[in-house]
Structure formats: C-alpha cells, structure tokens
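Module 6 notes. Inverse folding takes a fixed backbone as the condition and produces residue identities as the prediction. Think of it as a translation problem where the source language is geometry and the target language is the twenty amino acids. Below is one complete input and output pair. Work through it position by position during the lab.
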C-alpha cells in the first residue's frame, strides 16, 4: 500500500486539464500531417519578456525531452511562438534539430516568431503562415538594445569628437559601455547574417541555390536601417515578396483549424497558470518553465 507522500507524488504527476487539452490538439495535428510535432511557446505577449521567456541555452533540455522516442524519418513540424533570444543558443538548437531531421523541418507560425525565432524559421525548408502571422527582423540585440543602434551611436560620437564638439555629452554616453563593446555588436550582426545565410543555402534553397535571393533575404531582415525598429512585424505577403518559401495556412482548412485550436490552448494555459514557456511534442510529457 502506498504511503501518504507516495499518493501525493502520484497526484502531482497527473496532467492538468490544460495539459490534456493541449496534448489532444498536438496529437490531432500530428495525426493529420503524419509528421512529428513540437510546439515551442512563450508567454511574452502577457507582459513577461525576460531571459526565461526568450530563447536560451536552457531550452536544449526541452528539445532533448521532446525528441526522446521520436521517429526522425517522419520529419518535424516546429510550431513557434517566441520573441526571440540568444543567437548562440539558437545556433545550437538548429544544429541539434538538423542532426535528427536533416532539412525535413517545417516551421509553423500561429502568430509571431520574432528575432531569433525568425532565424529558426529561416533554417526550415518551408514556413507555414496565416494572414495574421508575423516574422521579424533578425538584427541582434545586445542587453536589449539593437546592435545597429549602438554602432551608429559610436559612429556619431567619433564624428563629433573628431570635430571637438559635444565632448562632455559623449564622455557620459560612452562610459556606460564596456571596452570592445562595439566590436561585440559588430560580431553579433555578422554572426546573425552568416548563420541565416548558411541555413538558407543548406535548407530552404538547398535544391535551387539562389545567391541573389538569399542575399536579399538576409540583407532585408538583418538591416536596422531598413526595418527602422527591431519589433517590426513582417506579414505573409512581405515574406513571400522577399522570396521565402511560404505555405498559406488558409489553403488547408483542416490544418488551419488544428493549428489555431492548439494556439488557443496555449494562450489559455498561460492565462490560467504560472507557466511562462512550454516545449512539448505529440509524444511524452511537456517541458514547462514557470515564473519564479
């Protein structure tokens, strides 16, 4: 006979109604497509936008948990809803997923996959977007500030200091940055472009290598002067015009219904619990990060 603590442990292991509903729609989506399905969801639209809601190295544990027991020959549908995050963590996640599924990875964007989330999408062979879906610029941010803005500020400071004007102002402004910070920003911008260029060459455009198209995509998305704002929203028409391989979610009514039902299940989970990030698949238990 189990004791009191063992009974409590058994109760705590039981999935909640929210978990059951999400998993039901994950299973239905996977059954419909015949593909493995992983959902990567963050509650960043609920006013929580910090390291834990962003893409980071901790997420690798969630993806490892999801891939346990999967049949890689079925490919992967990766459902993304994220504000983005760390570039090197993103690089690691893409490398891991590709080591398992090769280039047979499709991104599905129910609403928003911004910044590094856009980068992951660009590492996939196609991207499923609805008329309400959005990607974003891939120019990196350093400590929450666009790297391009920091470089531009340093350039403006150099020009003024060469002329001997605004010396006191720039002395105060530049003191807030550590040594070699502008070099760090420049390297981050270059890394973002290099990663996405390589992923497009070996994924989305693997069978039809188009240098001009790839360069246009990378330059358009990793160029602060064009986007004006790191939070710019790029809809399905903009992404198609860039040359990205986009599948219209509305073209398959059943797929649309399943994806949006799942999306609503995640929003309800975030609204009714302390969860701030969920990584889960159509098999196994969810990997959940809660608010601390």
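Target side of the pair, the amino acids:
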């Amino acid at each position: 006979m189990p004791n009191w603590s063992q009974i409590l442990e058994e109760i705590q292991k039981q999935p909640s109604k929210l978990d059951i509903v999400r998993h039901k729609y994950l299973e239905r989506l996977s059954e419909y497509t015949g593909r493995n399905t992983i959902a990567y969801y963050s509650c960043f639209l609920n006013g929580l936008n910090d390291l834990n809601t962003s893409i980071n190295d901790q997420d690798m544990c969630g993806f490892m948990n999801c891939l346990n027991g999967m049949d890689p020959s079925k490919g992967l549908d990766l459902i993304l809803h994220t504000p983005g995050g760390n570039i090197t963590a993103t690089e690691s996640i893409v490398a891991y997923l590709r080591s398992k599924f090769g280039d047979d990875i499709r991104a599905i964007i129910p609403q928003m996959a911004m910044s590094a989330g856009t980068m992951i999408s660009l590492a996939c062979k196609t991207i499923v977007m609805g008329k309400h879906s959005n990607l974003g610029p891939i120019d990196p941010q350093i400590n929450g500030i666009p790297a391009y803005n920091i470089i531009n500020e340093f350039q403006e400071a150099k020009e003024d200091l060469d002329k001997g004007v605004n010396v006191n102002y720039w002395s105060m402004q530049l003191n807030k940055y550590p040594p070699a910070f502008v070099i760090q920003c420049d390297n981050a911008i270059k890394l973002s472009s290099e990663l996405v260029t390589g992923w497009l060459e070996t994924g989305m455009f693997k069978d039809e290598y188009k240098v001009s198209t790839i360069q246009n995509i990378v330059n358009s998305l990793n160029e602060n002067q064009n986007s004006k704002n790191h939070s710019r929203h790029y809809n399905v028409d903009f992404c198609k015009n860039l040359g990205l391989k986009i599948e219209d979610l509305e073209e398959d009514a059943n797929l649309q219904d399943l994806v949006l039902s799942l999306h609503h299940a995640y929003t309800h989970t975030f609204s009714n619990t302390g969860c701030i990030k969920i990584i889960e698949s159509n098999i196994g238990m969810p990997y959940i990060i809660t608010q601390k």
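Reference fact for the lab report: The chain has twelve helices and eleven strands.
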